[in-house]
Amino acid sequence: MLKFLGKKGRTLVILILLGTLLGIILFLNKILFPFLLASFLAYVLAPVIDNLHQRKIRSHSISRGGAVLLVYFVILVVLIGGGSYVVPKVSAEMGSMIQEFPKAVTKISKKWGPVLDEKISSIASLFPEPDKVEPLPVIEKIEDKNQSTEIWTENGELLKILDSYTYEIKGLDSDRIEIVPHRKSGRESGIEEKPNVPLDMQTQLSLLAEEGVDKLKANMVRFLGLGRQLISQVVGSVFTLFLTFMVAAFILVDTERTLSFWRSLVPLQYHTRYSDLLKSLDKGLNGVVRGQLIICLVNGILTFIGLMIIGVPFAFTLGLVAMVFSLIPIFGTILSSIPIVIMGLTISLSTGLLGLLWILI
């Protein structure tokens, strides 16, 4: 097939076909997304359906359609029962966490800020102090009708004042110009706008906490203003979810017919390679997809149990966050450990460290 094109010609045709397929997927991504999600769901549930289909009840085997209905019924019961408990609990804990998180950061900064500042100062004292650089003298020249005098000022204050401005030169006419001073910002001018604020660790942590609270309030106000858009997205998501489960049910009921259809698209001489490819893909994805989902579930349950034993606040929500973030390799564990450590430190240092160790182990 396509042997007359040569090796380069076949490679070019394959690249063109792949590019066309990628363009179609990108153009029809919103339409294809439910079908791709349904294929993923069918792949995850296929072992369960096959196991139920092989079992017999009173010498009668369960049909694939009955197995699909039974699995969907269990999923529906879990979603309704779990949702009636999980959603209100998570909503209540999230509301409390949003209110308590800034207080927790402020409490940690006040409690551990002086300790960190003292440690940094003790470490800095081990190094020799840098030599003090004296400011250059400034020559201030005053001229009048009778005499010219030069006054030297050793403190360099005039130089600092002049350097805290930028100057715009405007031409009024051919003989006159106007110099307009513009004050620089605090960082550019080199003059501290708040010289009485100590730059210790506690102050820096408090400023970061205040800035984080302000940003959180601004984002919450913006989020509440998107209510109409949120409702439309929820309706669209429900429709997509319904379509996904319907398509997945058809795939699970007629799995053999679906696989036969895709096999018929492959030339006869490549059927053996096609079967080997499917087996290798199933072997690789079986450990990655199904194994990762099981790991996420177990990780969330163990995190919740451990945080309950240690005494970290909002253990249920933090365990749920850890379960979701377990889908992200390495970085998911790091991200989920940040709120756990912060909430643990509000109790004590040992609680925060135990929470971190429980997540890492």
Walk me through what this model shows:
This protein has 361 residues and is mainly α. Among the domains are: 92-125 and 203-247 and 266-360, no CATH class; 138-193, no CATH class. 72% of the residues lie in helices and 8% in strands. It has 12 helices and 6 strands. It has helices at 6-27, 29-54, 64-124, 157-163, 186-189, 201-224, 227-253, 255-264, 271-310, 315-325, 331-345, 349-360; strands spanning 56-57, 60-61, 138-143, 148-153, 165-171, 177-183. A two-stranded antiparallel ribbon has the order 1-2. Strands 3-4 form a two-stranded antiparallel sheet. Strand 5 (165-171) and strand 6 (177-183) form a beta hairpin. The longest helix is centred in the first third of the chain and has 61 residues, at 64-124. The two termini are 55 Å apart. 12% of the residues are buried. The model is unreliable at 138-142, 144-155 and 187-199 (pLDDT under 50).
What are its keywords?
361 residues; mainly alpha; two-stranded antiparallel sheet; 12 helices; extended
Q: Quick summary of this structure?
A:
A hairpin with a 4-residue loop joins strand 3 and strand 4. Residues 138-142, 144-155 and 187-199 have low confidence and may be disordered.
The proportion of residues in beta strands is: 5-15%
Distance between the termini: 55 Å
What is the helix/strand order?
Answer: HHEEHEEHEEHHHHHHHH
> Overall mean pLDDT score?
74
- Helix percent reads over 70%
